Amino acid sequence: MAAKPSREPRYPSLTQLSTRGTFYDVGYNVGLNFSQRIQLFFAESDNIQQKLLPFYHTRVGRDYHEECLRVTEECFPQYVREVRGMADGSGVPFEHLFQLCIHEKIHPDSLASQHNAQSTEGDFRPASAEKERVRDEFGCTTVYLNRPDLKLLLHNEDCDPLIKPYGYLLAAHIEEDGVKEEFTSFCYPGCLPGRAMNFNKQGVVVTTNALYPDHTVRCAPSRVFLSRALLSARNLEDAVRILKNEPYGAAYGFCANICTADGDMAAIEVGPNKPRADVHVHRVEEESDPDKPCHYYHFNSYKHLKVPEISGLNSSARRAKRTSEMPPPRTLQDALVAMGDTADTVCPVFRTPRPTDRGETVATGMFDVTAREMLVYQGNPAAAPNKPILKVPMYC
């Protein structure tokens, strides 16, 4: 008797959706088209089933959810509508999708133990046991190359391995009440676009690196909503304004890697604070001398902003050490080799799940500012024949 064929996806494989409408419409269409992926992701994610949803169903968790929803509706009502549309389209409760958008780097154990349900101001810090569990398992590697004739941003999207079968590419054109947004985004199932790798019609490329401050500011929007807002940025200065987010600030930290059609390149580190997020802009300057390095790496720890971090950022440290030992990348092929490096078998740059590192590089994005093209690789981008699965013209 013939063996039953496997229903597992075969890679490379990346599903795409193009849609337009209001914020709610776009969210609804995403939810409707990817309802099965979103539902399966929720059902199979240990983090969601064992931590996120149980926390939401506690008194403290519900109170925290409500205060986050209140401040987010004040600051980003259009993106809350987008989440509501996704919920209605997918059949997953809005409360669960919103919790997914606010939970990142929130530590429910310490929130419950250190603050009562009436506490709505200030910040909280993870308990030591929680710190040890929250390491940079799901983080990313980014490298910039900046010469007059070569302006590249490459990004390894390192995350929960479930994102590989359930993630998708979204091309959205939003028009509502005089507001227009047009962008392309690699999306996590059930989460707002913006948190991974993206570009918009204004010529702004954005990828993000998770960062791990040792505290979280309550009554401030989550990094997921700030990342979503970046998709509306017109230029580097506008991106900085969005990230400062006055007078609401930011609940947690991350790094926004920016390059623009005008050739501006910068790593913008964000620290949790209110009424204005702490922001440091590190410009990656153009290097015209071919004998000098033209690159810049960013991982999942702060390089410039003075923010206390949790312990256990082992993967970031090892990836940074390994790239410092490699020849400086000077070409696209050099950068692909660096992003595909596996010499460190404990915490490699190109990540596959292993006992010492649960994260996976589910995709590698290459943004060529000069050619105005986005390439997406699945699998090791350094492995022959290292052909991209997808080529997308940018800014068109």
Description of the structure:
The structure is a single chain. The protein is of the alpha+beta class. The protein contains 13 helices and 16 strands. The strands form three sheets. An eight-stranded mixed β-sheet has the order 1-5-6-7-8-10-11-12, covered by helices on one side. It has a six-stranded antiparallel β-sheet with strand order 13-3-4-14-15-16. The N and C termini lie far apart (52 Å).
Name some characteristics of this structure:
396 residues; alpha+beta; 16 strands; 32% helix; Peptidase C45 hydrolase domain-containing protein; C45_proenzyme-like; Peptidase_C45; Peptidase_C45_hydrolase
In order across it, which strands form the biggest sheet? 1-5-6-7-8-10-11-12
Strand content: 15-25%
Number of beta-strand segments: 16
**Distance between termini?**
52 Å
What does the average pLDDT come to?
Answer: 90
Class by SSE composition: alpha+beta
Largest sheet features:
8 strands, mixed
Helix share bin: 25-40%
Number of helices: 13
pLDDT < 50 stretches? 108-122, 124-134
Roughly how many Å is the radius of gyration? 20 Å
**In one word, what is the shape?**
globular
Order of helices and strands: EHHHHHHHEHEEHEEEEEHHEEEEHHEEE
Secondary-structure blueprint:
Layout: E1 16-21, H1 23-33, H2 35-44, H3 46-56, H4 59-75, H5 77-90, H6 94-102, H7 108-114, E2 123-124, H8 128-133, E3 141-147, E4 150-159, H9 163-166, E5 168-176, E6 179-187, E7 197-200, E8 204-210, E9 216-217, H10 223-230, H11 236-244, E10 254-260, E11 265-271, E12 278-283, E13 295-298, H12 314-325, H13 332-339, E14 360-368, E15 373-377, E16 390-393
Parallel strand pairs: 1-5
Antiparallel strand pairs: 2-9, 3-4, 3-13, 4-14, 5-6, 6-7, 7-8, 8-10, 10-11, 11-12, 14-15, 15-16
